[in-house]
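Researcher: Sequence of Olfactory receptor 10G2-like follows. Predict its structure.
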Amino acid sequence: MRRSKNTSLDTLVTDFILLGLSHPPSLRALLFLVFFIIYILTQLGNLLILLTVWADPKLHSRPMYILLGVLSFLDMWLSSVIVPRIILNFTPASKAIPFSGCVAQLYAFHFLGSTQCFLYTLMAYDRYLAICQPLRYPVLMNGRLCSTLVSGAWVAGSIHGSIQATLTFRLPYCGPNQVDYFFCDIPAVLRLACADTTVNELVTFVDIGVVAASCFTLILLSYANIVHAILKIRTAEGRRRAFSTCGAHLTVVTVYYVPCIFIYLRAGSKSPLDGAVAVFYTVVTPLLNPLIYTLRNQEVKSALKRITAGRGSVHGNK
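Model: Prediction complete. Tokens:
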């Protein structure tokens, strides 16, 4: 471990060692391959959704698909912040990450993760308006308002990431420097601080746990109203299409929020399950998003067929 002298403290950590996910050495090659394939599929799947929404005029003019495109963009970056570092831990390469790199990773993860959290809430609100207020939907959720809401989610996410990174790394870190986790996240890093972390844990609980729980509650309330409205649809086909569209979103939201709330409402926990649970919303969710939205959304599948046939730009409005 490299250290540098400081006038107020004996030594300060200049890098961290990420211990990664616990695994038997015999499975190292297999896990490397699994996470490498997951990363490639995540990037390709989300890039395909992003390009499809951008290329098809029938999709990129509708708020629902604008939000889906933004979600794919976020997933690509979120996966890139976390998964390559996991893959590196299955190789003989150094597990060290510079102090500044740890700060950047923590900020990027919470910036992208919280933006995604707000985006899921906007997607639920969009579906609520489309199903429960169909006649007023074009006025209540137009392209301009959608862009404004998305911009607000990005700004809020950036503020959130800045607050968490600043509070976490304002504390002194004088050793040890081994982070018992697969990336630089708040609970794991705080355990290494050479100072009282009570304020940090409280802020983590409120700013992450409660915000995530609140967003999840708003989403559930939106879907409670949506289900009530769907049950009033007289035709079975109409109910099926509405449930299919909303079911995809609710599935992804559950996979994302439940593990997230489990981790951050227990900021002081040292459970060995935390790492396994965190894999769901850092690795699995970005992979599932394009699969679920493509396989369960007829309009996206139709747009893909048009683009594959080379007719997306000509017949996209038909």
